Each structure stands twice: as structure tokens, then as C-alpha cells.
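Morning, I've got a small favour to ask if you have a moment. It would help a lot if you went through both lines with me. Thanks so much in advance, here it is.

***
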Amino acid sequence: MDFEKDNTFVTGRLKSVKYAFLGAVKLITTEHSVMVQFGIGIAMSVLGFIMHISATEWLFQTLAIGLVMSIEGLNTAVEKIADFIHPQFHEKIGFIKDIAAGAVFFAAMTAIAIGALIYIPKFI
């Protein structure tokens, strides 16, 4: 399949949004770690409505969910590229994958801290 670049501004941007949306759907429907993170994001959003969190709390919670989902997507992309380039185990590929997973860990710990700051006072 040949790639043809769409040089028109509006249709080019619309195609970009379409491909980004399709990529997000693929990510959510095919990757188990992303399914888990997406489920947690939905659960936290439902909890936000139940607990009547403030607009500022919604801002931080939404940013935390977006951060985790974004980094999880980048981690998945790194893993897929690494597996494509070198399908067999290789120490350097393993190191790269571990670093990408570490980025997800940092994002998840940040999200947990934000969630704790929002919800612990509401339960106490």
C-alpha cells in the first residue's frame, strides 16, 4: 500500500484525528495492560461523580488518567517496535523495554498519589 500525504489542511487534520482515534481503539481493545488502566480510569471517573469532586480535583484526576494512558500507549509502542526489530530475547531490548515500563510505573505512582490526595480526605 502506497502512502499518499494529504497536503490540504482540513482534510489532512481530519485524517490525522481519524488515525489517532483508531489507534486509541486498537490500544484499548488489544492490550491487556491498557484495558486494565482504561478500566481503572473509568472507575475513578465514576467515583468522581459519586463523591462530587470539585472542578480542580476533576482537572487533576483527568490529567492523571490521561498521563497514565498516554505513557502506557508509548510503552506498548516501544515494546511492539522492539519485538519487531528483535523477536528473540536480547539483553539490550529487555533493558529498553524495562525503561519504558519504568515510565509507566512513574505515571501510575503519580496517578495514585493524586487519587489519594483527592479521595482519602473524602473518606475520612
About this structure: The chain has a mean pLDDT of 93. The helical segments are 9-30, 32-51, 55-85, 91-123.
